[in-house]
Amino acid sequence: VSTSARLYTEEDPLVILSSSNLKPAVTNSSSAWFLQFYSSWCGHCIQYSETWKALARDVQDWQQAVRVGVLDCAQEENFDVCKEFNIKFYPTFKYFRAHSPETERGTPYRGADREIQSVRQVMVNILQNHTQQDWPERCPPLRPYSSAELLPLLGQRSDQYTAIIVEEPDSYVGREVVLDLLQFSGVEVRRALSLDLPLLDALKITTFPSVYLLHPNGSHSHLHVQKQLRFFFSSVLRTLAGVQRRVRPSSSTAVGQGGALQDQQSAWRDFSSSEVYAADLESALHYLLRVELATHSTLQGEELQVFKDFVTLVSKLYPGGGSVVKLMETLSDWLLSLPLPRIPYQAVLDLVDNKMRISGVFLGAELRWVGCQGSRAGLRGYPCSLWTLFHVLTVQHDATPTALDNTGLEGGAAPVLQVMRRYVRTFFGCEECGRHFERAAAASLEGVQNREQQVLWLWNQHNTVNDRLAGSLSDDPLFPKAPWPSPSLCASCHDEKNGVHEWNQDNVLLFLRKHYGASNISPRYSL
Ligand code: FAD
């Protein structure tokens, strides 16, 4: 089978099984499994693969209770195992209960409806069909709790929140939110039914689904969400103070601010997540010029070109026209005036230092992370500020379409992203990040046709990275990676269609323009 026929890759949030690991995976597993046996030559399987990937993404936080996998029966090495598991048509869906014996060959799911919401609900039913004996260890109870169990908790202190979702008996939202929070500590989610009148009376609940929150200090209240949707409930519960994603083992290394140059001040700087801070942007440039580029003793060829283009880009698009722009303009003029094929990097540093000393042109003399502060050294910092800088630049390019005229910068409809791509590939200290970003750019940057799409491409790519890194070692527990902007930052950015979360991209664009726009950049903590 050629690689182009591979419908699923390691980047998809599902398990790719084969003859060698199918049985070990599903035998006596601590989780249930929902598998698709497909064939890479079957047209329907090809069409369906996007839905299956979206399903896997939708339930990726449930994997300790139920895992999603695929097995390609068109691969020669899998012929025998597909026969043994009695696969005659493609795709065939089978599920395996947790703790299945070795002889188990799976129960077929023959439902005609294969849309995400329906399959997800089938997965919930499969979990609920377990008995007390074979219940998946990490799966919390999905049964409804009664008022007799819940009301005594009111007023009690606890070491965690308890969220009670009260809903109609046929609603799946409660159980879905229970599973969405499975990987999070600090909150326990319980389901209760709208038929339980003593509970409704005591909690004064009149609409369904509703969430009632018992706080660790014994107080309790309704939880306000803008839309009564699964995504909103899960998202608000995940961001309660003290609620944290449990770190999952991951191969990716933590990418933080780097040890070479640390933020000097250890006192916490208060900030608002709805603002962007000039201090972070200045620190990004400071780190980039003094640490990241300084590891290159000379710049030549593509490196020199990328550096020149980066400086030109920032000088033209950095908002506000302050000292950063002056410094970048000076650097840019100087670089363009030098006909040299190679430049010792020390000369760049000398220029930056001299320029700053003589003319008072100023770029923060130290790192000052604000919106990019990490809860400990090594988290957030520089990579956070680099994302922020490029989001600001894409939005500024959208706001000032002619800013890059006559600069010679190439890149068609996406000049900012092309510079970012080349910068990340050439200089960004995290090689793995560079490889991932390059792969994404190579796959879809060509499709960007205008400045709006340039803004949205970067937003979308950043969310893909957030998704991949959630719960990894580089995930700061105080600032957990999650789809951004959250409902509390932008409720109108989120919709739901057929039970599946959907972005409202028009509103996302409006939000990005506002959030990363010049007037939302706070000078607080900047020098
Ligand atoms: P960040 O992800 O750095 O985000 C910074 C801020 O941007 C957030 O606080 C939020 O305010 C805002 N934001 C979040 N999401 C979005 C969005 N979708 N659109 C707009 N704004 C948003 N680390 C790895 O371990 N592996 C990798 O492969 C990897 N690849 C990377 C590729 C690039 C190009 C970059 C710049 C960084 C990469 N990193 C990678 C680092 C990682 O993405 C984070 O930057 C780092 O872990 C710090 O995370 P953070 O919590 O500060 O949030």
Automatic annotation (TrEMBL):
One of the GO BP terms on file: protein folding
Gene3D superfamilies (alphabetical): ERV/ALR sulfhydryl oxidase domain, Glutaredoxin, QSOX sulfhydryl oxidase domain
Enzyme Commission number: 1.8.3.2
Domain ERV/ALR sulfhydryl oxidase stretches: 375-484
PROSITE patterns, sorted: ERV_ALR, THIOREDOXIN_2
InterPro entries in the cross-refs: ERV/ALR_sulphydryl_oxid_sf, ERV/ALR_sulphydryl_oxidase, QSOX_FAD-bd_dom, QSOX_FAD-bd_sf, QSOX_Trx1, Sulfhydryl_oxidase, Thioredoxin-like_sf, Thioredoxin_domain
Biological function: Catalyzes the oxidation of sulfhydryl groups in peptide and protein thiols to disulfides with the reduction of oxygen to hydrogen peroxide.
UniProt family annotation: Belongs to the quiescin-sulfhydryl oxidase (QSOX) family.
Protein name: Sulfhydryl oxidase
